[in-house]
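$ ./design --mode recover --in tokens.txt
reading tokens...
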């Protein structure tokens, strides 16, 4: 069951987001594990950070977070050919 789920998820092409923040002299940032549009009116976008992440602890004291969308050209290599992608999943 877990293997089937991993194969399914590997076929999805999610964008990559990075969140950064700063409190005083301490800066932090991380790859975001979960995002979702949660409202159209008013416009709302949710970003989920792990409580185990250092950025989460810094963000608790921050007034603002910056959410950066990483262009695909800068993200991990993605093969858009579904046949090759499936072969990579089977390895």
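writing sequence...
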């Amino acid at each position: 069951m877990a293997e089937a789920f991993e194969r399914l998820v590997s076929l999805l092409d999610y964008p990559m987001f990075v969140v950064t923040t700063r409190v005083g002299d301490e800066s932090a940032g991380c790859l975001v594990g979960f995002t979702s549009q949660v409202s159209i009116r008013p416009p709302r976008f949710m970003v989920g950070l792990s409580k185990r992440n250092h950025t989460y602890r810094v963000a608790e004291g921050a007034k603002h977070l910056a959410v950066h969308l990483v262009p695909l050209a800068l993200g991990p290599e993605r093969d858009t050919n579904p046949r090759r992608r499936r072969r990579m999943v089977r390895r």
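exit 0
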